[in-house]
Amino acid sequence: MAEHALASLSAELDDVSLARSRDLRRQRITTVIRYTVLTLVGLIMIYPLVWLIGASFKTNSEIFANPGFWPSKPTLDGYISGWKTSTPYSFGTFFLNTLWIVLPKMIGTAISCTAVAYGFARFEFPFKKLLFATLIATLLLPNVVTRIPQYLLFRDLGWLDTFLPLWVPSALAGDAFFVFMLVQFLRAIPRDMEEAARVDGANTWQVLVFIIIPLLMPALISVCLFQFMWTMNDFLGPLIYISSVEKFPVSLALKLSIDTTEAFEWNRVLAMSVLALTPALAVFFLAQKYFIDGISAGGIKG
Amino acid sequence: MSGDNRYLGLLYLSPYILGLLVFTTLPFVVSLYLSFTDYNLMSAPIFTGLDNYIRLFTADRTFRKSLWVTLIYVFTTVPLKLAFALFVAVILNYKLKFINVFRTAFYVPSILGGSIAIAVLWRYMFADVGLVNMALGMIGLEPVNWFGDPVNALFTITLLRLWQFGSAMVIFLAALQSIDKNLYEAASIDGAGKWKSFVHITLPLITPVIFFNLIMQMVQAFQEFNGPYIITQGGPLKATYLLPIYIYDEAFKRFDMGYASAIAWVLFVIIMALTLIAFWSSRHWVYYAGDKRS
């Protein structure tokens, strides 16, 4: 009896361990498949950028002859002659122009969007629902319809060929997405500290500056970083409003360099493209967390 | 904050309200008016009634072509991008080592988004002797005439935007990670396989973010400008001459502001109609947890 029971028990155990090892093997195979897919996709994602960097150090004849990353005879020629450009200005000027567009825009966005989000998240007032609905609607509103009248308005104000059309709408909380994102963040923050401060006699302005803004810091960093990226990448705005070359940001200067560079001088354009991407890439790698948190919290764009 | 002046909130909103009136509402109305006028910036706009719209729909072959190309572009790019983003997000949702490395690699192209440098890169990659044809040659395939052929040219722009699937992916991933794992265990005890659990558990639970991504990607795709403007210059044979480029040319190269406004309004109405259809249909397929309706 006992022997019989033992035998059947050990048979059962064999079955179990067989099933388990089958499971394990299947799991290992799916893991391998997953990594293979991810690695392949990852290579396709990154290789164009890697190739671009390599190509910017190649000679013109090599760019279209060698698909590999390493240049056979590395040269800085693309960077040196590309930087000079065919205009009286160097890329240094264009980078400073970009910076001069980006910084005020970031500051204006951060200040105005914080105030507006605070208003929406913490106060009751007439037309609140209607105004919040318009905020959501402007998120979806394609700006293709407002662009022409905006241009006419800026022309009448005498703002063409200045940075004002790029700065002012952002300083008036024009990027609805950021307001929306900050409202979402604020709604998740408990109000205890604010109420305690109010009991101690602080006014709403002091609550905003001393309590809300420190709590909102991570979200504000996300906002600034996204605005930085979008403005660096913005092309249509400067294309419409900026006409003198001395005020061109990098995006317009790059377009100009493909238009004016004579044939067979690709390495200049590629080298300047690498430089144009460098600030965005550097900022991204320094602050990845804020981008990914920001995008999954507000969920948008790109 | 009770006890405060009930207009205090509006004070904090004042920059927004000012901006809304001056840079959105007013231009919105003016744009509609301009679309019924002939206005070349030289003299005051002349009201011409429906002339612009009649010209668009009866006489203008460029418009018809441009509209057609835009619709093809949007209806191929958006579904492909969402499907791909979801596919990768599902793979990334398992516990794997180095997951952050992959996530970052997939996200980098999106963050560089509309950058002109990326459009320049694309232009060189798909050139006759560019990287893509070199790679095809290495695996024994014939080079493809990317920019000479109308279908291929539009496809290079689609490929660029597919390459930037990362932000849709991050949103999908966040949604996938918030799904309660017990649901899958319960399903597997009931004998459901992986595919069945995906279709009956995962998909319904992430319909809100599918809907969100769909709307955002669609509105964005309809306004694509940088890609075709830099990579293909709208060619060949206007095969990549998307409506935003047509509007730009009419307004800022030919200074035909009235006609450009009319095109913009047609584009706007199409986007709004599709958005409304999506919102209307969402009642039937978007599931919100805790929603009493379902």
What does this protein look like?
The complex is a heterodimer of chains A (302) and B (294). Chain A is mainly α. Chain A has helices at 2-55, 60-63, 77-84, 91-122, 128-140, 147-156, 164-171, 176-187, 192-199, 204-233, 236-241, 250-260, 266-286, 288-298. In chain A, helix 3 crosses helix 13 and helix 4 packs antiparallel against helix 10. The N and C termini of chain A lie far apart (71 Å). The mean pLDDT of chain A is 89. Chain B is an all-alpha fold. Helices cover 71% and strands 1% of the residues of chain B. Chain B has a two-stranded antiparallel ribbon with strand order 1-2. Chain B starts with 7 loop residues before the first helix and ends in a 9-residue tail after the last helix. The chains are: A mainly alpha (302), B mainly alpha (294). At the A-B interface, helix 1, helix 4, helix 5, helix 6 and helix 10 of A face helix 1, helix 3, helix 4, helix 5 and helix 6 of B.
What's the gist of this structure?
The complex is a heterodimer of chains A (302) and B (294). With 302 residues, chain A is mostly helical.
Question: What are the salient characteristics of this protein?
Answer:
heterodimer; A: mainly alpha; 14 helices; B: mainly alpha; globular
**Order of neighbouring strands in the sheet with most strands of chain B:** 1-2
Q: What is the strand content of chain B?
A: under 5%
Query: H/E order of the elements of chain A?
Result: HHHHHHHHHHHHHH
Task: Give a count of the beta strands of chain B, DSSP E runs of length 2 or more.
Answer: 2
User: Which structural category do the helix and sheet elements of chain A fall into?
Assistant: mainly alpha
Mean pLDDT over the full residue set of chain A: 89
Low-confidence runs of chain B: none
Instruction: Choose one word for the global shape of chain B.
Output: globular
What would you call the shape of chain A?
flat
- Helix and strand succession of chain B? HEEHHHHHHHHHHHHH
- Which runs of chain A of at least 5 residues are low in confidence (pLDDT < 50)? none
Given helix and strand content, the structural type of chain B is: mainly alpha
The percent range for strand residues of chain A is under 5%
For the CA atoms, what is the radius of gyration of chain B? 24 Å
Largest interface: A-B, 92 and 95 residues
Helix content of chain B: over 70%
Tally of helical segments of chain B: 14
* Tally of contiguous helical segments of chain A: 14
**Helix content, binned percent of chain A:** over 70%
Largest pleated sheet of chain A: none
Number of strands of chain A: 0
